């Protein structure tokens, strides 16, 4: 194996291909791949990937998700213009490649509700053009683009559910205490169905009906800790448990493509586990497990007759691979891979580890050591990067991680922790995070850092903290609340003031606002404002003593750029050194490959200075990036980032 560093470009430039799908009629493959450096839709006849051709030619904003219409006559995708999350829905004709904007309205965030095989030429979308806070439901004719109003959302409903005839059947609204109420819709009228307490709100939600529209599937943590899959008789209300796992929420469901009944269910504690298998698919899943040893896999797409599956497989040492599984022929054929160039390099395994918080909670975490480390511990403690996931209502999982591979390749131990509030581990684990932002949630991170030090994994004096969104907030906390633990902090699109965060959430998050207030603290009350101030890094700027690399997207609507602007200004007013980079054409994260490459090049040089790891020369990896250096230009020049921005 080569001793050279894995080039940043192989890890963070556009993938070669991903998001492979199959049309409902089984005739076409589709996937996303670059055209002149921008991610676009591609298409090929099923079984003939070598005949692939680009279907769209976007020149600026990449396409990152797509889906087929049920009649196999259109490909659909969402996109915004500059990261501002004013999202439009587009349709593409697979034959001619003509692209139509199906939602040509200013200042909207279009939402997908449902598309039905029983009404293949149409689907239901949500639009917030009437009131930016709430989405009305519209039936959209794919051939003509004509819209018909199905439900005017004057009742402040966060979600509206439909059956396969596109008839509204249920809805969900938020209550002032951060809980939720479910409604049945009968003859166009709302009727209270059941109340969902705050603790159950994240894990409990209706999914969709079976094909006969007689039974509703639902995830529910009501009367249990972990979310189970329920099947509810819509006429009688009788419930049955399809599957439940004692230690984790239901995480993935394989549906029968004809009946829309659950054929298999997966959950994940340390790794994903298909723990419920119907006889109809048991042999198929066993075949895939035998053909893909060591891989995590999921069925990403199914043909209408359920004969053809698109399987997405990955493992820590291999990025996403997409395969065509013919269930009848028992053949498994690779369609495309996201990053095949990584085959030339020695990638590192990921190790699930379980620690304990100081008050006894189990903290499922993932550790990646440099590939040169033979066992589960290095010969001597390594510099370590703590990578904190966003959300906070999300989770880290086992599998391929480009950031883990990159940092481990540079000689660092890499640790990701599922702190309290992370989802997937039951409602009690989420409830343990109430009002604990900047407190016990941060303590969980510190406890796992202490574990890594005690285990001889991490060098106590060389631990960096990095993350985006909530992970960015955690990085700011590391610099202001616990500067003695971390030698540097790298917040990306991070939060510095919890009150301004909650006061400036996007209007279409209105249906989630009360839950956030209950979780963080209520900015409308004196007690809530006091709590939010106590947990906000902006009020502890004087405690910053370690180097910081701060980055933000100018158009971020979730965590506005002012969150970083204000703390940088406060640091500069106090004469505290800081490096600050803003991307004028990005939002809540870095979407454009030139910006990603530039960021990781700067980050790599920054970490090399403060942790002492290996560093690839910058080379051409700043070219084409929009980044603006708003503070710390001299420091970056000292890192070899010359003429950057």
From TrEMBL:
Q: Any idea which GO molecular function terms this record carries?
A: omega peptidase activity
Q: Which residues form the Peptidase S9 prolyl oligopeptidase catalytic domain?
A: 402-613
Q: Which UniProt keywords apply?
A: Hydrolase
Matching entries from InterPro entries are given as:
6-blade_b-propeller_TolB-like, AB_hydrolase_fold, Peptidase_S9_cat
Q: What class of enzyme is it?
A: hydrolase
Q: Does the keyword Hydrolase apply?
A: yes
Question: What superkingdom heads the lineage?
Answer: Bacteria
- The EC number(s) attached to this protein equal 3.4.19.1
Which Pfam families does this UniProt record tie to the protein? Answer: Peptidase_S9
Its name, as the record gives it, is: Acylaminoacyl-peptidase
